[in-house]
Design a protein that fits this description.
One of its GO terms (cellular component) is membrane. One of its GO terms (biological process) is calcium ion transport. It is a multi-pass membrane protein. It comes from Pleuronectes platessa. The protein contains 26 helices and 4 strands. The protein is mainly α. The strands form 2 sheets. A two-stranded antiparallel sheet has the order 1-2. The protein has a two-stranded antiparallel ribbon with strand order 3-4.
Length: about 675
């Protein structure tokens, strides 16, 4: 049946084998394989025994039956679990789960359907990796995702091997040397998103505690009232009961919050933060180990490790966690940037600046050039206008005077060092206020050098809504340079504030809008386009196969990954024809064996339409031929009848003429 899609071989096989007998053999082989799994046999030729185990034989027969079922509806109904013959549904469910089919394109551009057994190692592919590949695979210039998907297959295969080692299970090879099982690490590595969420939630919680209660010496342990302490214990017990009975996320959050509050008022805020930081550090270590194992970072070498940006990000996160635990709690604030990594919308905000970074940098350089030119003009013509109000830090003498002023101004009395009131009058209060007023309203020249002019225009001019004119001295209309000053302020406002800065803002806003459009287009493509062949949903309208059936059965992206894994793990001496062909194409990194803009269901439906049309024409031709043959028969019969009638008339004429000839007309009567 390999590479054959016509019904000739199928009819020949089904003629000698009944469908019910074929299904019964499949079920018996599966049951016999279960008995051998429960009672394993030891021997030197274990690999050969396993390759010819009853369960594998039954799987091969199931694949044969799956191919034959396309030509026999009775067999197709029997292979469905829960069908007419309900016994042995477990075997059919097992084989259906571990059987997949794909479509490939041969060198002569013909398409071929392949049904193959799914390797056992594919069970270790995590759901998180599936979602990551499905949503992050990029399209190439031709609009296909096959290239990026094929490149990620090696990483996914490494992840399967890592998960298999952690689980401690062996592939179906009969090898008795297995890696020791690591159930805890295996469970951790299969729930990476869960640990990432815990890290972020802990970072938010620790920053809230630091923001509200720093300095940490303010809250000590044991400062809670007895009734509040009892209330906290009750909240902990109630939330624990809710988590045990109904394990919902809200109940878990309530339990964590009540536990942390209990710790704060029992041992103090600083030990609680230290405990949370240590837990977050351990959690990140587990996450990083799982990440390294799933991605195969260590096995690819140190160069690949350094070039892996995501690995470096998680390593930096781990270093910041360590600094927060061992150096200072303010380092926890840096962990909040993880929100940018977790949320695609915020990541697009950052990309809106970095994608067109060259345009933004060049526009900023133009702004600096304009600031430099305006600084030169200001230094030459308006040096005396650059007078800015400043707030100087008073020296010790002025600080002492200011403190005296504050005491007289606020309370009307002074205080000694021992915090006792003194009885000096406040008659000098107005006099003492003057030095403070002078300090507050102090002004200085800020354009005595060109460098100071540049700094002033750059700092105050760009940050002021009306430009540099808002911070300079307000000139009088009687001054000779009044008109020049007005032109100077207006030019700076229009050229720098309105044009250049809005150019930068416009580039950022347009880039963000493009990123949002790309995101929406990407989501639309995922919903309406096949991942493998790129055909759109409308191509399957009014066809025998729907779009959902096409992406689930015919062109399931994970079935193609399973077939690639099968080619990797299978012995090359046991390859079938299609497997040898795909293995050779994979070695050459040739992706022409993937179907692009093609599907066998569409081709077969078109062929069926042509066949139906030809069949209708043949039927009409046969009907016409029958009519013609009937008419020919009738004409032949009519011709024969006319010939017979003519002969009869001739006979009658011949028989009647001799009597007339024997009568003598002259003989008397």
């Amino acid at each position: 049946m390999e590479s054959r899609h016509d019904s000739e071989n199928a009819e020949r096989i089904l003629y000698n084998m009944r469908p019910k007998e074929l299904v019964d053999v499949i079920k018996k082989a599966y049951m016999q394989g279960e008995i051998e799994v429960e009672e394993p046999q030891e021997g030197e030729d274990g690999e050969e025994e396993h390759s010819a185990s009853p369960r594998n034989v039954g799987h091969n027969i199931y694949i044969l039956a799956h191919q034959l079922a396309r030509h026999n509806k009775e067999l197709q109904a029997m292979l469905k679990p829960g069908g007419t013959y309900g016994e042995g549904d477990e075997a059919l469910e097992f084989y259906a789960k571990h059987t997949a089919q794909i479509e490939i394109v041969r060198l002569d551009r013909t398409m071929e359907q392949i049904v193959f057994p799914v390797p056992n190692i594919c069970e270790f592919l995590t759901q998180e990796s599936k979602l990551r590949v499905y949503y992050t695979t990029e399209r190439d210039e031709q609009g296909s995702k096959i290239n990026d998907f094929f490149l990620s297959a090696e990483d996914l295969f490494n992840e399967m091997n890592w998960q298999k080692k952690l689980r401690g299970t062996q592939e179906a090879t009969g090898n008795t040397n297995t890696v020791p099982s690591q159930p805890i690490l295996y469970w951790c590595s299969r729930n990476m998103s869960f640990w990432s969420s815990i890290s972020f939630n802990l970072a938010v919680l620790m920053n809230l505690l630091v923001a509200f209660f720093y300095p940490l010496e303010g809250i000590r342990g044991g400062t809670l009232e007895p009734h509040l302490s009892a209330l906290l214990w009750m909240a902990m017990l109630v939330s624990l009961a809710i988590v045990i009975v109904l394990p919902q996320p809200h109940g878990i959050r309530a339990l964590i919050a009540s536990t942390i509050l209990r710790l704060i008022f029992s041992v103090g805020l600083e030990p609680t933060l230290l405990l949370l930081g240590g837990f977050n550090l351990c959690n990140k270590v587990i996450f990083l180990m799982s990440y390294v194992g799933n991605r195969g970072t260590f096995t690819r070498g140190y160069r690949a490790m350094i070039m892996d940006v995501e690995f470096l990000y998680h390593l930096l996160y781990l270093i910041i966690c360590s600094l927060g635990v061992f150096v200072h709690v303010f380092f926890y604030s840096l962990l909040l940037f993880d929100l940018v990594y977790r949320e695609e919308t915020l990541l697009n905000v950052i990309k809106s600046v970095t994608r067109n970074g060259r345009s933004i940098v060049l526009t900023a350089v133009l702004a600096l050039i304009l600031v430099y030119l305006f600084s030169i003009v200001g230094y030459i013509f308006f040096k005396d206008d650059f007078i800015l109000a400043v707030d100087r830090i008073p020296n010790k003498t002025l600080e002492h005077g200011a403190s005296m002023v504050g005491e007289f101004f606020s309370g009307g009395a002074c205080q000694k060092e021992n915090r006792e009131n003194c009885s000096e009058p406040m008659v000098d209060a107005p006099i003492a206020i003057q030095p403070s007023a002078v300090v507050i309203e102090d002004k200085e020249r800020s354009c005595d050098s060109l460098l100071m002019c540049i700094v002033t225009v750059l700092s105050h001019g760009l940050r002021s809504g009306g430009g540099v004119g808002d911070v300079l001295r307000k000139p009088s209309k009687e001054e000779p340079l009044f008109a020049a000053r007005v032109i100077y302020d207006l030019l700076f406002f229009f050229m720098v504030i309105i044009i250049v800065l809005n150019l930068i803002f416009g580039v950022i806003i347009d880039t963000f809008a493009d990123l949002r459009s790309e995101k929406q287009k990407k989501e639309e493509i995922l919903k309406t386009t096949c991942f493998i062949c790129g055909l759109e949903r409308d191509k399957f309208d009014n066809k025998t196969v729907t779009f959902e059936e096409h992406i689930k059965v015919e062109h399931n992206m994970w079935h193609y990954l399973f077939f690639i894994v099968l080619v990797k793990v299978k012995d090359s001496t046991e390859y079938t024809g299609p497997e040898s062909y795909v293995a050779e194409m994979m070695r050459d990194h040739n992706l022409d064996w993937f179907p692009r803009m093609r599907a066998m269901s569409l081709v077969s439906s078109d062929a069926d339409g042509e066949q139906n049309e030809i069949r209708n024409l043949q039927e009409k031709l046969e009907t016409t031929m029958k009519l013609v043959s009937n008419l020919s028969g009738q004409l032949t019969e009519l011709k024969e009848q006319m010939t017979e009638q003519r002969k009869q008339k001739q006979r009658i004429g011949l028989l009647g003429h001799p009597q007339h000839m024997n009568v003598n007309p002259q003989q008397p009567a």
